[in-house]
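To whoever picks this up:

The nightly regression suite flagged Cyclin-A2-like as changed. Nothing in the input moved, so I suspect the structure step. Input below, exactly as stored in the fixture:
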Amino acid sequence: MAAAPLAQQAPFGLMSIDMDVENCPPPFMGVGKESFQVYSDAAGSRARSHQTASTSSVLVERPFQRQAGASSGPVFGGLAKQTVVDIDANNAGNPLACSEYAADIFDHLHDVECDCRPDPQYMETVQADMTPHMRAILVDWLVEVALEYRLCSDTLHLTIALLDRFLSKVPISRDQLQLAGIACMWAASKYEEIYAPTAREFCFITDNTYSPEQLVAMEALVLRGLSFRLTLPTAKAFLRRYLQASAADERLHFLASFLCEVALMDEASMRHSPSSIAAASVFLARAMLGQAPWDATLAHFSRRRAADVAATVELVAATHRRVVEEGTFTAIVDKYSSPKLLSVGRAAPLPAPHVAALLQAVCAPVVACGGGMALRC
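Regenerated output under the current build:
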């Protein structure tokens, strides 16, 4: 028996997507170089861990030189201007950490993320039969499928990245959207998972709306459309590094991961780079936990100042509010409401005025000791 449409939040089992959206609510609307390099969103590690895995990462930045005896700087408005912490010091003797290759690894990740961006306007220029709300329905359903088959967060992020890139290039009909979604998840599962679900399992989760042969054919179409280029950094790859730079505990780790996945729901996130989404998720999670949202260590390893992620912070915060307040798409909230993930999905979103005031406080110029002007971060 077929389940109810996912827009009505059907329970797990046999799932199919109803793309009739005439009575649906409106779609989501996205609201210097020193010791690090700043990457702007204007120019357009592979991991096996599950949600409860350790936050440590073996991807590391370029080792930097620091004078002996360096100490923390002054505190402005409760936000500390600190010396950059060498978070890789403990990895110096660990060959698995690859500290000597860190600079090349992250230079490559930042370069590639700009080359593999989807077209934020593909629903206007390529997919004439698709709306932002239909995309949100599909993403919400894919989150449920990933949870049902216990797929890691990397697989989910890669799935959405492949899907948006594919839809930016190849026009398909409305009744093929769900098939394209599971084809991208199947390809991402083969890339990220040790044991990927089979074609029959993915077809079963659609209430056998599609046959395994149709899934194989769609996967081939996806791969050709992407020129077989599946290796690209997602926000999750950057998030691990930034959490390590934050010396994150479990609550910060889960909350930032939650916000990073929430951002997937809004098509406006395609206008922001994966590294910016990751940085904004850490910024917002730290603020929600009452911590200083940005510091010198995060600025160094993210290669961004607080002002550089302000627009992305506003987007992630706005999407979080919409998801919680509207209650239409609850898969991510339900997933992170589990006690195993410290129930961070139940965290109250920050009001827009609070976010605006926070960004103004963090990014506003301050008077330096010598009388000149300096930025907080």
